[in-house]
Amino acid sequence: MRINKYISHNSKYSRREADELIKAGLVKINKKLASLSDEVSKNDKVSIRGKILNEKKLFTVIVYNKPKGELVSKKDDRARKTIYQSLPQNFSHFLPVGRLDFASEGLLLLSDSVDVVNALMHSDLERKYYLKIRGKIDEKVLEAMKNGLEILNSKKGAHAKTKISSMKIAPFLDFEILGFSG
Predict the structure, then answer these.
(1) Is the model's pTM score more than 0.70?
(2) Which residue in 101, 115, 124, 174 is the catalytic one?
(3) What is the enclosing helix (H) or strand (E) of 23?
(4) If 13 and its partner were Cys, which of 17, 96, 126, 153 is the partner (CB 3.0–4.6 Å)?
């Protein structure tokens, strides 16, 4: 495993922060100064500022009720509020399991373990959403909900700097239309 990834998985530092620590000469592997391209194996001893970094065996998962008007991001180039500004400082290194849009609200899981986050993100864990859809729910919308939807080469409604031009939405397992106002 690369040294910056090992540090981010086993400490409060992100990969970028780990890179800065390595560049500053504050990281050692087996008492030798680490470089950015170093790999860490199972028996290696990694230290930061002389303190041995132990491999994490325990993890924490927190549940956060994200309100509307917060981004699920560490920072925003447009200075919008992020979840990390609302969470206590000691959760600043936690990673979210998925994302909720800026205008969405609801349950969000965060963990200090990359392995836990990845396991939950790629699980068959059922998610439940309540959606408000502007406009009519016509046959085209119902078909997309039943069979999924793939949008190719479109940036309509996207952030101006995004490189994403395609999107795939899986079919809904189940849905119920609670009402409509036209």
Answers:
(1) no
(2) 101
(3) helix 15-23
(4) 17
